[in-house]
Hints:
mainly alpha
Amino acid sequence: MTQCSICHQLYDATTPPESVFHEAGAWLAEEIWQDAGAICPQCLENRAMLAMMYAHDCNG
C-alpha cells in the first residue's frame, strides 16, 4: 500500500487505470508534474478533470 501525496489515503499502486480520466491523470503525473506513483486513482482522476478545464497550457 502507498499513501497518496495529495489526500494521504492509502491505495494499491498496482491498480490498472479504470477510466480515461485515471489514465490521463497518470500521464499528467508522469509527464507534467513528475509525481507518478505517488498519487491515488481518485486524485489522478480529479487532476485530469481539473487540467482539462483549467490547464490550457497542457491541452495542446
